[in-house]
Design goal:
- By secondary structure, the protein is mostly helical.
- The protein has one domain.
- Helices cover 76% and strands 0% of the residues.
- It is built from 17 helices and no strands.
- The longest helix has 31 residues.
- The radius of gyration is 21 Å and the shape is globular.
- About 5% of the residues have low confidence.
Length: 357
Amino acid sequence: MSIRYAQLLLCFGLAGSAAGRAPLIANDDWPTYGGGLAAWSGFTLPSAILMVLFAYGASALTGAGAVALLHGLRLVAVAIVAQAVWEMARRLSRGRARASITLVSALLLLMTHSTWAQLTAIASGAVLGRLFCSSASAGSRQLTLKVPVSKRAGAIALTAFLALLILPALVSPSVSWPGLELFNAFYRSGALVFGGGHVVLPLLREAFVTPGWVTDDTFLAGYGAAQAVPGPLFTFAAYLGAVVRPTPHGLPGAALGLLSIFLPGFLIVLGALPYWDSLRGSPAARAMMSGVNAAVVGILAAALYEPLWTTSVMSPADLAMVLVGFVLLTVWRLPALLVVVSLATAAVLLEVLGGIT
């Protein structure tokens, strides 16, 4: 099972802040969780601040050059997600069984564009993994992760996770506060994603572009810019919260989006940690995780095609820039920031040269 980087830092922060204080751990003392919060804040806030600044700066950009720049960022997103699919497939879709699960997952998402399709793909991956991936997971090396979280704290976290997933969706039709709808959109997207941060792309697009809260161009430009900042990709939520049309937006929307999208992952991690080692020691659980990870590759491959490819690659020049970016990332192993700057600059130069000619 993949744990996103910011949530892994939360785990390490929990362990580090509780070192040497085992008698207090069962009482769920605040310093234990404060260490996790500090680790997450230090890793997340720099990129979140940069994404909010980009949100304000992008709204001030006008003219053909600005349009070309934003289009270049969309092409960056295509290249980077293609690299993610390539790298994940090499690790998680090896062998006939896992490759077939990846294919089934991708076909399901391509034929049905909905949140339930993604959940169905993940659930199907777990079932198929249990049936066909036992041998693939049998020899996997175990990493013991001892984090001081009590079973009581885990039960509270899982209860809170389910309550926050279900209750806002039930009461939002009868409550006029737009902030509740925004919280529900971010929280649901963070709760239903499984695996790497790129997998959240179709969920966020359905939650924000489909109802008209942001345009496709604005959404994909921000997603491309998110590739250039340090830290977790989920800080894209700060950008969306800042540019979204319903209130709250701006800085309050950015803060709400950032906290809402990370909160479900934190609650799940806290809830699962007391049982983590026993789950990882189970051959059946490892086989299911293997199948789910293979399904995640298919989900990301489907997102690469729709919406990224279909809405960004519009000409042979676009295709050329995506291929160049993909090779720079996968073969030359250049930093993502350098590729972002290169492709965005190339898009602007092509626009300028085209205007001259």
